[in-house]
Amino acid sequence: MPPMVIRNMMTRVPLLFPFLALLLLGFFSGCSAPTLREPNVTVKDVTFESVSLQTLNLAIQLQVENPNPVGITLSRVAFDVYYETGSGREYLGHGEQENLTFPKQQTVVYTIPVEIDNLQAVKAIPVMVRDRSLPIIVTGTATVDLKITKVDIPFEKRKVISV
Predict the structure, then answer these.
(1) Are 109 and 97 in contact (CB under 8 A)?
(2) Fewer CB in 10 Å around end: N or C, the chain?
(3) In whole angstroms, what is the distance from residue 60 CA to residue 73 CA?
(4) 102 and 51 assigned to the same domain
(5) What's the burial of 114, exposed, middle or buried (CB within 10 Å: 0-12/13-18/19+)?
(6) Is pLDDT of 148 > 50?
(7) Which residue in 89, 81, 84 sits closest to 134, CA to CA?
(8) Structural domains of the chain, count
(9) Does 17 lie in the same domain as 58?
(10) How far apart are CA 78 and CA 66, in angstroms?
(11) 136, 121 Cβ separation under 8 angstroms
């Protein structure tokens, strides 16, 4: 190409990019992306699974309702398990799970095991003997991975387990 044609193209190309950007912006402004809603995260149930000489095993059923038109991923679910005394809460154990996927517009229940050291469980015996039950509290956070950001959803459940 002759040098004059190349010089004319170089002066027009920088003007072309803003024009194309405005054109595309105008074209897509009528289209709106679906609004994503926060999933509903709840503890459905807490059950005793087993007891050994060293540990007490619980199962925490975590229910997640995904109201969105796309699947979602919980990059992390972490929670602590307590038992309630007359004067407050006592720590029992910790549960955690990563990369839980949920299909679009469905409710899914995941069972997450929690292993509690018997030393912690022994502290709860006076409450269990006195009340013939144990009030369990599960409190935690589910982290939703939205690819561009992460959102923490807190949850808490209190359940009295009969012994």
Answers:
(1) no
(2) N
(3) 19
(4) yes
(5) buried
(6) yes
(7) 84
(8) 2
(9) no
(10) 19
(11) no
| 42 pLDDT higher than 60 | yes
Residues 28 and 46 in one domain: no
Confidence of residue 34 (pLDDT cuts 50, 70, 90): low
Give 67-79 pLDDT, tens digit per residue: 989 888 889 999 9
Q: How many residues does the chain have?
A: 163
- DSSP label at residue 105: T
27 lies in the same domain as 54: no
CATH number at residue 142: 2.60.40.10
Q: Residue 158 pLDDT more than 80?
A: yes
Give the pLDDT of residue 2: 57
pLDDT, tens digit, for every residue of 102-130?
A: 899 999 999 999 988 888 888 887 888 88
- Which amino acid, residue 83? Y
Domain range for 132: 40-162
Distance CA 151, CA 145 (A): 7
Q: What is the pLDDT of residue 32?
A: 52
In angstroms, rounded to a whole number, what is the distance separating the alpha carbons of residues 161 and 135? 6
